[in-house]
UniProtKB/TrEMBL annotation:
Protein name (database record): Amine oxidase domain-containing protein
Gene3D superfamilies the UniProt entry points to: FAD/NAD(P)-binding domain (3.50.50.60)
Record GO terms (molecular function): oxidoreductase activity
Record domain Amine oxidase: where: 10-409
Amino acid sequence: MKIAIVGAGFTGLSAAYVLSRRKHQITIFEKEATVGGLASGFKHKEWQWTIEKHYHHWFTNDSFAINLIKELKLSQKLFFPPSVTSIFYGNKIYPFNSPNDVITFSPLSVKDRLRTGAMLLYLKLLPPSLALNMENETASNWLKKHFGEKAFQILWQPLLIGKFGKFADQVNMAWFWARIKKRTPKLGYLEGGYHQLLERMLEEIKAHGGEIKFNTPYTSDLDRSFDKIIFTAPSFAFIKTYPSLPDPYKRRIASIPHLHALNLLLITEKKLLKKDYWLNINDRKFPFIALVTHTNLVDKKYYAGKNLTWVGNYLPPGHPFLKMSKEELFAIYQPFLQKINSNFNDKLQTINCELFLGPFAQPVFFTGYAKLKPDFRTPLRKVILANIDMVYPWDRGTNYAIELGFKAAGEAEGFPSAD
């Protein structure tokens, strides 16, 4: 078959990888100048490795990504170094990486710490078949009820509000369960950056006769040239590409709100965070939700000895930060960065910063989301949809983007996947 794939992120490339190896004629359409989508990378000329425009890592249970890396003979480049996840609360950093960290988390009473530890273990052990029943209850209600009011206010409410804003009280508990279930103590990365895997996939696709058209948005008039189309771009773009879709279908997929990822990458001589890789900001007076220090996971020698730290945010369309330059945004963030590290002003000399916007990066998973979740099959006979709205209850991530691409390939060949 002649198959068009719209988008060269991990979902599109994974579908193309499978289908090209099965002798289908594949053409990938990518509106940007490079592969990767939200996982695309860049590098300064003095760096040895690329880094992603938006922070990424793998968990040790990310089987689809890990198996693909092995299949493409890149497994020797995959490594899982020690990493520290922490919480910033009450102007202090608390490690939150292990059961012992939970038990010694002093902002909570001993009783609340024990209750929190027990509930985290319960969520970790709860199987998906039971956890999916949680989708009809909001995370806010469930967490408040089972963790207790104090733990909810300190641990979970600031993160829900920070990530989802006005939608915080509408996000369902199945999504939250998946965040706890998925996390592993060790986090992984690929030598050279994710770009190594993306480029290797593209090489394999081309070796099997596939082609890619960069800087080329897909338009519906191209449908007649293909037997199947796999559309991996956001639902918003799908509706825009196919305005003649039936109104009920358009209303259904358009009713899923999305937040934009806005990440400011700080490039500094000295460390902003001493040892923490991931620091959740549990103080909603702060204008960002997390600091992610890449060079506390990966040696800074690959980046000319500089320290790389993302200042992470998820923002609704129309938020004023989305229109700001990196200098304007840094000026807003700087006083808050100084609260985390008082030496930031005079000793951490910022060499540079980069600003990256990832539109439609985070779907909002309401209660009853399963009724809204798009299907591979669409009202258009030849067109298959496979995008980030469909990885639920799991959160966005390259592992599930790869799985989605594999399933979309099966749909294109007439082998419906079992969701």
